[in-house]
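Before drawing any conclusions, I looked closely at one protein, both as residues and as discrete backbone shape codes, quoted below without any editing:
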Amino acid sequence: MRRLLPVLGLSVLTACASLPARKYVVFFTNQSVELNEPAKAVIADVAREAQSHPGKIVQVEGYAAAGGDLSADALLAIQRAKLVAATLHEDGVSGDRIRQTPRAPTSGEGMVVGARRVEIELVSP
């Protein structure tokens, strides 16, 4: 039984190391590029996590719900990603570690809350 404990411990550590990266999500109200207090808290959490993992890149992906004008919606996704990236930078994350990727809306996304978001993830370079 004692021989199995180290093997079990290593198995647990291996499983933890292979877990996918956590995605942090910042939600916006419809047609908005303003951060509310819960959104600011999420970004502050990511900034602290990024400082704990200096070798990781902070990937920021902006989304917008598809409305009548897909060009305007794409611009909204860009603005949201830029705002979150700027706030991460203000919270101490170096600008060279932040990668922004706006995601153009598709007409199938509609006005659902999940489409009005920015996803943040710490990834290996």
Q: What stands out?
A: Confidence is low (pLDDT under 50) at residues 4-16.
